[in-house]
Amino acid sequence: MSEALATRPAEDSFGLFRRLRGWLGNPWGRPRFLVLVAWGYVVWSIAPVVIAIQFSFNDSRSLSVWHGFTTKWYTSTDPNIDSVFHSAELRGALAQSMKLAGLDVLIATPIGLFLALGLARWRGRGSGASNFLMLFPLVTPEIVMGVSLLLLFSHLLTIVPFGTIAQVLGHVTFSISYVVVILRGRLFSIGRSYEEAAADLGAAPATALSRVLLPLLLPAIVASAAIVFAISIDDFVISQWLSSGANSTTVPMEIYAATRATPQPSTDGIATVIMVITLLSVVAGVLVYRFFTRGESGRGSAVNDVAGFGI
């Protein structure tokens, strides 16, 4: 009797462990472990950002002790407070970041569009190597690219002045690859049937490109522009290497300089502003992409669709 009672807890523990293992490893059940991992990653990645945003509204200069809510680090006109919207350095850095990101979008997006069209339709000798070289900036460490561009502009292309022009060229250099990757994915999903249908209906190649292919590529163009804007406005390494002083300082450069000295809540404030701008650009790109791609699964034949474009 006593031996049976002694072995019963061990059997109960083994049975509980077996049921727990079956509950976690059930292939037909809900992915409980994956959900925990996903939420753990989300909390781990977002918590520092939330803390930084919180202390940008702190009523004191402390970045570790909360003293109440205030917006003075954003809107104060006190000369002793470097508020985000009244500090000449912070406003200048924000304007420079916006300028670089806007010019990058205007230059890199059309270049990437035509490169994507050429690489997707090119089937001759050297096409494979060209496609590989186009993806090379994506795998090149940014510090290597920054140093390479610095040496290029300081020793070979000396006519390019450091500052805004050099920074724009540097941003365009690494942004084009993102545009090409996004647009090529869209091109492969579209296929060549629409172009062939336009040609069957008598459209010239330029007409098929402007009135059929470009409208179909518009969602990917908008998405790639949003990605380029978000990447460019957050760039630090290339902007730092190609800057020419205070007039070409960007927000990431300003944040880096502030954190190496005595950081203030206004530093968290300008970081919050740039993060909100980045999120809004990405969200806008996603919404536009979904708007233009709605109902694509119910498309009819390619000839009927192209006829709807007025070919």
Concise description?
With 311 residues, the protein is an all-alpha fold.
Please summarize the sheet with the most strands. Answer: none
Shape assignment:
globular
State the CATH class of the largest domain. Answer: Mainly Alpha
Number of helices: 13
Distance between the termini: 91 Å
Count of domains: 2
Low-confidence stretches: 298-311
Per the CATH scheme, the topology name of the largest domain is MetI-like fold
Describe the structure.
It is a single chain. With about 300 residues, the chain is mostly helical. About 75% of the residues lie in helices and about 0% in strands. The longest helix has about 35 residues, at about 90-120. The N and C termini lie far apart (about 90 Å).
What keyword list fits this structure?
2 domains, MetI-like fold, disordered C terminus, mainly alpha, 311 residues
